[in-house]
Amino acid sequence: MVNRNKQAGMTALSLLLLALVVGFFLICLVKIGPVYLESMTVKSIVEQAAEEARNEELGKAEIHDRIAKKLLINTVSGMNMEDVEVRGIGEDMEIDANYEVRKPLLFNIDVVVKFEDLIVKVNPS
Q1: Which residue in 13, 19, 62, 98 could disulfide with 58, CB within 3.0 to 4.6 Å?
Q2: For the residues of 26-64, what is the DSSP string, one character each?
Q3: Edge-to-edge, what's the strand order for the sheet holding 119-121?
Q4: Is a pLDDT exceeding 70 seen at residue 1?
């Protein structure tokens, strides 16, 4: 015989707790997801600029201007052009586009997301 009292299922309190946890993760996904999608766009733009600089032998200012125009066209709002730095000369030129984004999460809690993998060599060896 099976005792029905031991097979009651979820209580209202545990259902509420589950809803709060799922809701918190959904809020995190909605707030932070677009930041990661935008970072993929930024990475693509920087890699395209490096490819164009390689093929057309562009200078630092021209590379910087092309990146700025592409960021504007793609409506990238999380990155400033002050975050983009073109270093080196000739064969040693690289584009450093590391940046961080601060987004409000809940009330006075912010999330800071750092993207530190956006250094692209113009002429990889």
Answers
A1: 62
A2: HHHHHHHHHHHHHHHHHHHHHHHHHHHHHHHT--HHHHH
A3: 85-87, 94-96, 119-121
A4: no
